[in-house]
Amino acid sequence: MHDLTPITALGGTSQRIDTVGDVCLTEMPDVALASVAARRGKEARCRAALKPLLNADAPPPGRTTANAPFESIWTGPDQWMLLADFTTHEDIAAHLKSHLADTASVTEQTDAWVCFDLTGPRITAVLELLCTIDLTWFETGDAIRTSIHHLGCFVICTETGQSVRILGPRASAGSLHHAITTAMASAL
Amino acid sequence: MIIHHPLLGPRDSAEFVYLGAAALMDRPDPETASADDWHDYAYLRDNPAGPHRELWFHEGGDRSILIVTRDTTTHEITDVALARPAGAQI
Amino acid sequence: MTQTNRLDGGQIDRDATLSFTFDGKTYAGHPGDTLASALLANNVRLMGRSFKYHRPRGPLTAGSEEPNALVELRSGARQEPNTRATTAELFDGLSAKSQNRWPSLAFDAMAINDRLSNFLTAGFYYKTFMWPAAFWEKLYEPIIRKAAGLGSLSMQADPDAYDKGFRHCDLLIIGAGPAGLSAALTAARAGKHVILADEDFRMGGRLNAETFAIADMAAADWAAQIIAELCTMPNVRLMPRTTVIGAFDHGIYGAVERISDHLAIPPAGKPRQILWRVNAQQCLLCAGATERPIAFENNDRPGIMLAASMRAYANRWATTPARRVAIFTNNDDGHRTAQDLHAKGVKIAAVIDTRPDAQRSHDYEVLQGAQVKDTKGRLGLTFVEVAQADGSSRTVECGALGVSGGWNPNVHLTCHQRGRPTWDDGLAAFVPGGTLPPGMTVAGAANGALSTHGALQSGRDAARKALGLKGRAPAVPKAEDAPVNQSPFWYVQGCSRAWLDQQNDVTVKDVKLSHQEGFRSVEHLKRYTTLGMATDQGKTSNMGGLAIMAELAGKSIHEVGTTIFRPPYTPMAIGALAGRMRGKEFHPTRLTPSHFWAKERGAVFVEVGNWLRAQWFPLPGETHWRQSVDREVTATRASVGVCDCTTLGKIDVQGSDAATFLNKIYCNGFAKLAVGKTRYGLMLREDGIAMDDGTAGRLAEDQFVVTTTTANAAKVYQHMEFVRQCLMPDADVQLISTTEAWAQYAVAGPNSRRLLQKIVDADHDISNEGFPFMGCANITVCGGLRARLFRISFSGELAFEIAVPSRYGDALMRRLMVEGEEFDVTPYGTEALGVMRIEKGHAAGNELNGTTTALNLGMGRMVSKAKDSIGSKLSERPGLNQADALMQVGLRPINADHKVTAGGHLMNATGPVDAAHDQGYVTSAAYSPALGCMIGLGFLKDGGNRLRERLRLVSPVTDLTVEVVVVSAHFIDPEGERVRA
Prior knowledge:
heterotrimer; A: 188 residues; alpha+beta; Gyrase A, domain 2; Alpha-Beta Plaits; 5-stranded antiparallel sheet; 11 strands; 35% strand; B: 90 residues; mainly beta; Folate-binding fold; 4-stranded antiparallel sheet; 6 strands
């Protein structure tokens, strides 16, 4: 076991939590991520290999799956992001590669992203100041990659109107956090 | 503008980066092309007042490059397709 | 002063009193008032001075079309010029100042212009300031600039915040008058997502200003009831105080919502305004109509206003500009004003109707077939002179005059794309025409349905049609349905100083003059006279100007046409367009994994793209950046230095065709690169010019890690996606950016291996034999953490780049510092990095500047002829391969104390110094601690064959001439022994 102490994307040793009114923004450092892109011509085999990992069919465009052990987001044609608990799946990329073998390219993405959960009954008022997503139709299981404060982010609806998960570029975690908390103060 | 992504539906054009005319996909065959062919490919562009096929990179989205047919006089978009067809299933 | 002109009733809250000041004087008003209505209630008619002649002016209207009553609102940094008093919502403590006057509103020295009006006619500037030409810059322009404009800026930064937001709906309804409310109700009850936006703080439009009934209720009460119902519906969003400023492509509308303009200061964290981008499947424009004035001599005195505005002041705001008023009208609507004001106890001195058959009244005198000839009253109307039907003159004493010339549909937003309004003879007005913005329908008065019943019905029907609703239409409530009876009457014959455009001081005479001088297109008329320009964009004035033009040209108004409208519908704050993107938040900031550590060490940071990078790390006692940078360079070359190079773009390239793909994007070969090896690669643009350079390490048969320069990371990724998706669609290649996933540090210097051996787990051999130059490997560090190691060097020293997952980057840097103590390890920043790469002769952004080729960079032989790659064909063009082509060289000053500057040009040792004799230019320069002098990299014609030649480095802009000698670009270790050590 190595002896290097990690820091969160916001530079802390523990997750940062911000609350405005009844909406809460929580930094989620314990999310392991890997991208899975089907190899050309092996798309069907890749999907078949993904199925037991996801306990579901690989999601179609704009959708996610939320079963253990790996949650998933559609990220592009024949391409998904898989999510797992960091504490148990820090080796997510190696683990997936061993299952998917030559059907997919697997790339560790854990620390390419910062993950925030935004929860509360009025998150819609916050989100509409941040991104172009049509929130009237944004339901549990939907996921959209869009721009927030000029940063390409994934926004995943984990509970309609109540909870979203936002993945943004890790190096800009501070800017993204500032944009979201500013919108919270403005909207709530 | 709103671009109707073949996979993701209507998306704001702000999520895209314009990459130029779709004619860029027709790269000359290096085995057979003449110097003029390369010159035309690299430097000459049509500038139609009307329908224009062009490439839009969904940088803020799924990273697909789309071939968008847009009327340059009205911005009406009549067709959108993936530059690289997806695999058997998406 | 008390509110002497306050009437009964109205939609103001008399239980609360608001105190405000105008030009320093304190007044009282009520919630629900605008600044204009409160001033009128306090018997203040004079609110401004006109632009050119400084004529005293009062409000012409009661809405956003106001040309006259422009004030400076608030004070200090929040001072806002040219704010319409007619829309400024009153709040306690509001302070306003009149503008464009000196020393005071009542006595304005610049009113002398009014006496000089014979000279200040249309085209005055064009005619007067033509000659002598030299006078323009020194004399004329300063004078004009001083005299121009209305209000003044605070010259301080705007202290308020503005937001941007995004909303979506099935139907956007613009305007909450009878048509808008009727449409909203229809759509909302059908379950559609509806946004109803209105610029007013009180929804209801004209219904708030009228006394007639709808469904046996007062119109305002009916409106309030509908609004209350809409409020309860979850699929409806009401947006009062929201101006839809423009109709953009594909159903996108811009809307400015004034969140805090009705408050003294926005609450903490709240924006002043939000610019909404509304994405609407369908849009219903229910913007109503604007009353148009009639031009007559001296029709601009304070107290003269549009009749329906006067009625709105009375009915909605319970105020009147005077206790004794007259009306001048060409239609029935003027009589409505007379009736309503009479009912409120205002004395109607007379109704002057241009029509000989105008209806009479029991309550007041109606002068049939009469016209207003002239008016009197310097700072406010005192009486009007009327020419009666029989030719006799008559004086009517009054403190205010309501003028009604009919109504113009508000077609502005229909023009924002390809719409061109068309003339409707029946209405004697322009109505929406041409190609409307796709998805837009126009209803109510904006579409010519001027009666209340017509508006209600039109709103309902348009909503049903736009949304494709089937079934029987719900009934429209009973409402006023007076026939529209508008006939053109633009100006009183014989007048000359009769104002058409009160904001720009354009008179009937000016329009005639410009016609006489040959300005005969509407667009020319507008530019020559300034008719319809400035903050009101001619909402009340355009029509009159066009009509007179048509008359002079002997054409119909239809033939003359109209100018069209652009966004924004009404003026908007620049801050709203900027949103939160101001100052440091103009763009997001990217922090490196070692940022917090570097900050602790007191690093000086530099912005590189969006990244903040450590530029150097000053130590106590260092007072000049060069001391820090020289020390960092020297220490690195002597022992070991560490630099965060995470910012270089990293792209994971995988797939069975990954090597083929790299062969295509790099001009040099990659197919045969062995696993565990890294290679330098040069990417060309298709036109043969160098695009970017970097390295690609082969981690597996089917996996490469490609690096790009920091600045080009996004562009290179884009280019690679283009090649992958558009040129090689069948190839098995997958790309993903991993720039931020890995913290990557350069560890450079003769002791770099010894330092790393303390970090890298023992089972990985990183000796020169086990891990030679240009090696790469997946390894573990610090007891099992996955990491990547590359043996590459940008500094020219023995060097490595080590990468760990970003979250461990901070800890790894601290560990390197601790473990490196025995070697005096030195962190170095981008300046030292730059010095070392210049000493080594490595090209960077300054050399890959978008004009240089592989040949220029000294890498001509790298372009493989054995394969096709992007740019390889066009790099063979003769023009890029001339015998004297620029070649990268090194440059040293003859005198070691002399400066070498980037950007300077190279000239032969003797001969002329001019562009024709240019020999090349310097791209990079730095002080080299190793050489003890400044050195430079540059491009020199035929540079490969000119080693040891003396040249002059000149920079005429900095008046510099330095003698330099041409040397190899590899100042340090030209044989490359160090990197292989």
